[in-house]
């Protein structure tokens, strides 16, 4: 039995640790539900194995890991969707959190976070309040991180006041290091 | 030691050294003046729309998306250029760029052009400049870097990483299939972006010119 954390761990160039030889077929032939051993962290994990191809609408109310191919729509509104390193998705995705280690063609909407890990690939538009894209990940599309709510404003916009007309960066930048050269290249 | 031993020894010595070289050197960091002004232009808009012509950089997405509240279009034209070079269709790249930007006219508040123009021949650069000018909103800003030094055939692109202070940039080199083309003169750059006006122009110590363009209202 393998643990969920192992399935989503970044592989840093290594081929993804395959599921234990007995596990994938079971998961592939019939998406299986199991329970973690921890007494306080009881959680259902569903895995769609790499030989599984699904076309159509995929809805769920539990966390899901996909190692196979899915085309259509995936909706896990309150749960975490993990696209494993072998996962190939051509779908519109809606979930609470989406972790991408494989390939996604399609738009991803997450109410919490989209996380594209090293070697993960997304071609489509991302909409989520938090988005993390690792070095080595591939992404092509647009990113919209606007939080839903009244009158969304950039977080670090300078307080409205007398200098409102003067263009200033929104983010109050960290002061330059005291010893750093005033301008131009630092470092090499 | 025989001749063959010496040859094989040299070969095995050279391979790891060449492979490890990029990792050994830290990314050059340089301060920009135009970037801060560019950010100022962006933040004057309530929900700014930004086009980033470079490869995706996670920290840049977080900076522009989370901190500045931008909607970002990541359009890695460097990868597209590589693809065209690889397929032997680089002469078609200008036409590709002319169709690449599907945004509405005057719908974008800021464009990070980085140093991409340096890698293009003149007709392709003109088509790109026309498209960027078209999609830019009046009062919108475009930030570009332009080399000054004669090109020595180096084939790498730079991935520019914005520091949290919004002043410094880290340039991370990565391999390219096509080197920089000839450096443009200032007047050629201005002519290229004839629909925009130069708001600020700086010469950095790393011999790059950074130019901030604004679209007239």
Tell me the span between the first and last alpha carbons of chain B. Answer: 75 Å
Poorly predicted runs of 5 or more residues of chain B: 1-22
Name the CATH architecture of chain B. 3-Layer(aba) Sandwich
Shape designation of chain A: globular
Round the mean pLDDT of chain B to the nearest integer and report it. Answer: 87
In total, the number of strands of chain A is 13
Describe the structure in brief:
The complex is a heterodimer of chains A (188) and B (217). Chain A has 188 residues and is mostly beta strands.
Task: Describe this protein's structure.
- The complex is a heterodimer of chains A (188) and B (217).
- Chain A is mainly beta.
- Chain A has a domain at 33-144.
- In chain A, 6% of the residues lie in helices and 41% in strands.
- Chain A has 2 helices and 13 strands; from the N terminus they run H-H-E-E-E-E-E-E-E-E-E-E-E-E-E.
- A 6-stranded parallel barrel of chain A has the order 6-7-9-12-10-8.
- The model of chain A is unreliable at 1-41 and 149-188 (pLDDT under 50).
- Chain B is an alpha/beta fold and 217 residues long.
- Chain B has one domain (27-214): 3-Layer(aba) Sandwich (Rossmann fold), CATH 3.40.50.
- Helix content of chain B is 37%, strand content 27%.
- Chain B has helices at 3-24, 34-43, 58-67, 77-86, 93-100, 122-135, 186-192, and strands at 29-31, 49-52, 71-74, 108-114, 136-147, 156-162, 168-175, 197-203, 208-214.
- Chain B has a 6-stranded mixed beta sheet. In chain B, strands 1-7-6 form a 3-stranded antiparallel beta sheet, with helices on one face.
- In chain B, helix 5 packs parallel to helix 6 (122-135).
- The longest helix of chain B is centred in the first third of the chain and has 22 residues, at 3-24.
- Chain B starts with a helix and ends with a strand.
- The model of chain B is unreliable at 1-22 (pLDDT under 50).
- Chain A binds chain B through residues 116, 130-135, 137-146, 152-158, 166-171, 173-176, 181-188, and chain B through 25-31, 33, 36-37, 39-44, 46-48, 56-58, 61-63, 65-76, 164-168, 204-206.
- Strand 13 (185-186) of chain A pairs antiparallel with strand 1 (29-31) of chain B, so a sheet runs across the interface.
